[in-house]
Amino acid sequence: MGKKYNVLIIGAGKIGAFFDTPSSLDILTHAHAFTKMKEFNILGFVEDDIKRAEEASNLWNTTYFESIEKAFEKNRIDVVSLCVPDEYHYKLLQKLSDFQVKLVFAEKPLAKSLEQAEKIIRLYNKKNIKCLINYSRRFVSEFANLKHSILDGVYGEFICGNGYYGKGTMHNGSHLIDFLRYIIGEIKETKTFNYDFDFYKDDPTISGILKFQNGGVFTMNSISCNNYTIFEIELLFEKARIRIIDAGFKIEIYEVANNSLFKGYRKLVKKDEINTSLGNAMENAVINIYNSLSFNEKLKCTLEDGYRALEVCEKLKVGINDE
Questions:
Q1: Backbone angles phi, psi at 210, to 5 degrees
Q2: Are 236 and 212 in contact (CB under 8 A)?
Q3: Are the C-beta atoms of 46 and 8 separated by less than 8 Å?
Q4: Residue 10, φ and ψ in degrees, nearest 5
Q5: Ramachandran bin of 167, using left for φ above 0, alpha for ψ from -120 to 50, beta for the remaining angles
Q6: Between β-strands 158-165 and 217-222, what pairing exists: parallel, antiparallel or unpaired?
Q7: Quick one: 133 exposed, middle or buried, by C-beta within 10 A (0-12, 13-18, 19+)?
Q8: Structure confidence by residue, pLDDT tens digits, 236-293
């Protein structure tokens, strides 16, 4: 058995504690992911809402602390999961750097501005603190396989695509942007053509066009979360069409075939339908944390990745003034 690492979870909300239970098949919370691995020991939660703190600690058979200072007072804490609302990310990431912590597992986005993100990157590099950003689709093996197929040219050149999301460009749109960076490549230009404040007053949900350094364009469409929740992506390549649906729980792959009815024409025919392991992305992220701490494995979503996603969000936001 390898070394055991102590974990503190800051924030006893849905993603931290309540999206699932210890008996759930899918692993959707930070608490569940860390309890699944014997190499981690959850010391407890830090949560302002005492009732919620008690419920979370009872559910996950641990305790809670009144403050971060109290948690560190008598405990060696190796890993901190940061599961608080977006507006607290920067302040708490700064605060955690004052303690002897090896790694922070932070919910996205990294911060609320590029300036804040830059400060965190400099601070964590200076203090040699690792940080993993939870853009969850990076921790799914089926998407890693898809990425490799795209890079290997299996589907030909990327032509264009479109996608749908809601609930803020930084909050949810950055998921889409990070995923596109991950499987297609860097985004060199953006153009904003519509926006809506469907949830956050300071985080508009923006519709825009993204242009990639490797070629190809992508249209991201804002859909108000007041209608429903949606996260879907369609990618068109020279030799294939790929649809990522059901928030990423399913991948559909279409290949080019001759049209038997209309001679001389070609059409797209569904070749494969893949159910992904998105429900275990959190567990895979925790495995990446363990391997990084124990064997220096590269983190699958770095501070730099968090910064690049924010950079595209900021460009889209600036484009509102030109829209």
A1: -110, 135
A2: no
A3: yes
A4: -100, 115
A5: left
A6: parallel
A7: buried
A8: 999 999 999 999 999 999 999 999 899 999 999 999 999 999 999 999 999 999 999 9
CA separation for the pair 10, 23 (Å, rounded): 22
| Matching residue, tokens 């991948």 | 251
Q: List, as one string, the DSSP characters of 7-51.
A: EEEE--SIIIIISS-TT-SS--SHHHHHHT-TTEEEEEEE-S-HH
> How does pLDDT run across 58-79, given as a tens digit for each residue?
999 999 999 999 999 989 999 9
Cα gap 237→183, rounded to integer Å: 13
* Cα–Cα distance measured from residue 158 to residue 184, given in angstroms and rounded to the nearest whole number: 8
307, 118 contact by CB (below 8 A): yes
199-216 as b/e: b if 16+ CB within 10 A: bbeebbbbbbbbebeeeb
119: its two tokens: 């400060």
What string of DSSP letters covers 155-202? T-SEEEEEEEE-S-IIIIIHHHHHHHHHHT--EEEEEEEEEE-SS-SS
Q: What gap in Å lies between CA 159 and CA 165, rounded to an integer? A: 21
Three-class secondary structure of residue 121 per DSSP: helix
Task: Say whether 94 sits in a helix, a strand or coil.
Answer: helix
- pTM of the complete model: 0.95
